[in-house]
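Weekly modeling sync, notes
Attendees: S.R. (lead), two postdocs, one rotation student

Agenda item 3: backlog of single-chain predictions. S.R. asked that every request posted to the team notebook include the full sequence so nobody has to chase files. The rotation student volunteered to paste the first one in as an example of the format we agreed on. Action items at the bottom.

Example entry:
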Amino acid sequence: MITIIAAIANNNALGKDNDLIWHLPADLKRFKKVTSGHHILMGRNTFESIGRPLPNRTSVIITRNNDYLKEGCLVAHSLEEAIELSKDETDIFIIGGAQVYKEAIENNLVDKLDICLVHHSFEADVFFPNIDMNIWKEASREDFKADEKNKYDYSFVSYIRK
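Predicted structure, as returned to the notebook:
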């Protein structure tokens, strides 16, 4: 199963200046739990914003640069190649960025969307593609109110392909 996992705002905002806009510890904790032990596929900019391979995961970096190498990571030169490098995995997670999300959705490479919806709009320079409800159906939803650790209301929403 190939899953996109992302945190997006009401206005589909993902980030600004190659960084996250908000800090939701509950989302980070869930991201770690869901992706641990699996391959995580990401564009080079997303990897560089993280700055290191994430523990207990296999990082697959997608870049057009044929000379790019990162210790502790696999490198692919297309999304399809990244998926091929991960073919023995039962669960593969695409973790960003916006271009990789868009390509995966447009080319029907994804089985599931695992979204943390942040109930706020933000100024951003990268956005998640619109979720077409003719293609996707909501499979589950958990809603949470802001608290002392999480500044915004948020929901964990899973979509599966119809």
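Discussion: group reviewed the output briefly. The longest helix spans residues 25-35.
Action items: rotation student to repeat for the remaining queue; S.R. to check formatting next week.
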